[in-house]
Amino acid sequence: MPPVTQDMRCDVLIVGAGITGALMAEQLTRRGHDVVVIDRAPPGGGSTAASTAMLLWEIDRPLRELTELYGFERAARAYRASHDAVRGLQGLVRQLGLSCQTRDKPSLYLAAGDSTSALRDEHELRCRAGLPGDFLDHRALLETFEIARAGAILSAGSADADPVQLTHGLLDIAIRRGARLLQADAADFDPASHAVGVRLANGNTIEARHVVLATGYVMPDIVQARVQRTVSTWAIATTPQPDRLWRDGALIWEDKDNYLYARTTVDGRIIVGGEDDDAVIDPQARDALTPQKIATLRQRLAALWPRAAREIDFGWSGAFDVTDDGLPLIGPVPGATNIHAAYGYGGNGITFSFLAAQLIGLSLAGGSSPLFEDFALDRPRVTKA
Q1: What's the pTM?
Q2: Kind and range of the H or E element at 299?
């Protein structure tokens, strides 16, 4: 990735070469735009590499809570858009022939306590919205998946993939179409009616008709969103145990705020994550908690799936952003002409990244969508429903 050594111009400048920037570059080069992608780090080396790699269409906020916040129509619109985004991303991977270990997967949304009333309400709303899924009571869940919880919603249409391989594959295609991938650190943005001047840390300037911010949880000062916050998270990966996995390698998560998630890998490992904490953000403090969090995650895995081998090969932590309502931040940056944001925060990061590429591509072509209002950067903060 060569550095920027002189002033330059382009049609669209994408700041960030992670999965969001890569999906954006593929979308915009396919639409015929002259694209430059810059990043201060290697492609896919930031939050992309720490992704859960779960391509879920189910949003961190249950449909029932989004309905209480925004009404059924708006909530259902977000859920249907997320569902269509996973399907669209799977189709794109097949169409482009990308090698990224993608696999179609069902999702298993588990009751977190002894009652299934909230989960049944959720299932009814999903059916009303035209979304796929079957409710499993305790007996059906135990017979089908050998998981002892009060109940679950089993849904088709999700997937998993290697996000770093996907990022590199998408960028390679964009580069073959003429995109330029360069090393640079954007220091300042000067929007104007006809173009945006982006001053780099080395003193050079890139002038672009449009700028797309795809910088993960490192949000530049020009963005004044109010609905997101940074949290720390932890994960473990077991030794390979392909003969001890649950049925279909379903993507597992729970019906609770600080949910546990679990998935399998191509080589038969089990990855379990969660234990999120928004009070411990400092990297050193987070690292100090890692041994304790690994022990807790090991215990939670044993409770979820007792037949799993307990040997842990890897344990790690990271920081990522979430929003109050579980929805992404996608669209124009308020007060900054020709600057757009693509922030797919939360557990649906890759899904929302694909949706962002579609929506911003539509916007640059002169189109519109009610989702821009739903995902607006300046939407007001909400509290738990």
Answers
A1: 0.93
A2: helix 283-304
